[in-house]
Amino acid sequence: MTTVVASFFNDEKFHVEKQLFFAVCFPLFTILALAIDSVSFAENYFDGRQITNVLALLYFSFFFWFSGSHLRRLMFVMVILSYIGELIFCTLLEMYHYRTAVIPLYVPFGHAIVFASGYVYAHTQWAVKRDAILRKYFLIGFFALFLFVGIFLNDVFSVIFGIFFFLLLKRKRWQNLYYFIALCVIFIELVGTYFECWKWEPKTFGLIPAANPPMGAVFFYAGGDVLLSKIVDCWKIKTVKE
User: Fold this and answer.
1) Contact indicator for 109, 78 with CB cutoff of 8 Å
2) What is the 8-class DSSP label of residue 205?
């Protein structure tokens, strides 16, 4: 009986189906969790930050538990990397700020959920079969997006870092993985700023005009994802040698 249960939980199909379930539920979970941490919720009811923290931890834990070993490593390292990133971009560089002075506990776990969702989307059979055509649509779509916010929202930040985003993708051979993750990033940024959970500064570094949120922020996520992959690859190599 024990062997049967262990075999069931180690089955690749089981992991794929569960991973996809959590990835598909990502938009709904994001709206719910950030709505509870919103300024409006705090003003009309109570500060829901702790509830959102618990929800994020639970969602991350279940997503992590039902993922394969490689995605688990990526999610684990992403939590650490994202917290370091928050200290750099939020606390040190002050590119954006949260509705409270403290970086919410749910944020680094949320970054891992965002990454994992994009990762799962990119590895679905549907996406893999349409890799070439999706690559073209993504390129045109993101180019149009950066150009649109630059012209109509004076989002110079997105124009500049949008260029860096494309240069980074060129080095990574235009992998759709980064586009899928970028879509998840844009979604959570739009939801988070709508609920006023965080707000981007109108001028980054006091010089570069930026929208709230700036679409060019995807470059920093993509850069972190590249670093994440390298760290996990080194981890795997070291594990195999041992």
Assistant:
1) no
2) T
pTM, entire model: 0.92
Is it true that the peptide bond before 213 is cis, omega within 30 degrees of 0? yes
* Maximum pairwise Cα distance, the chain: 65
What is the helix (H) or strand (E) element at residue 96, kind and residue range?
strand 96-98
Query: Nearest CA to 179 among 124, 220, 119, 233?
Result: 119
Token code pair at residue 207: 């010089």
Write the secondary structure of 176-191 as one string of H (helix), E (strand) and C (coil): HHHHHHHHHHHHHHHH
**Contact criterion met (CB below 8 Å) for 152 and 93:** no
Q: pLDDT per residue over 131-146, tens digit each?
A: 999 999 999 999 999 9
pLDDT one-digit tens code per residue, 147-203: 999 999 999 999 999 999 999 999 999 999 999 999 999 999 999 999 999 999 999
Please, what is the angle between helix 218-241 and helix 156-171, to 10°?
30
The string of DSSP codes covering 103-167 is PPTHHHHHHHHHHHHHHHHHTSHHHHHTHHHHHHHHHHHHHHHHHHHHHHS--HHHHHHHHHHHH
DSSP helix/strand/coil, 212: coil
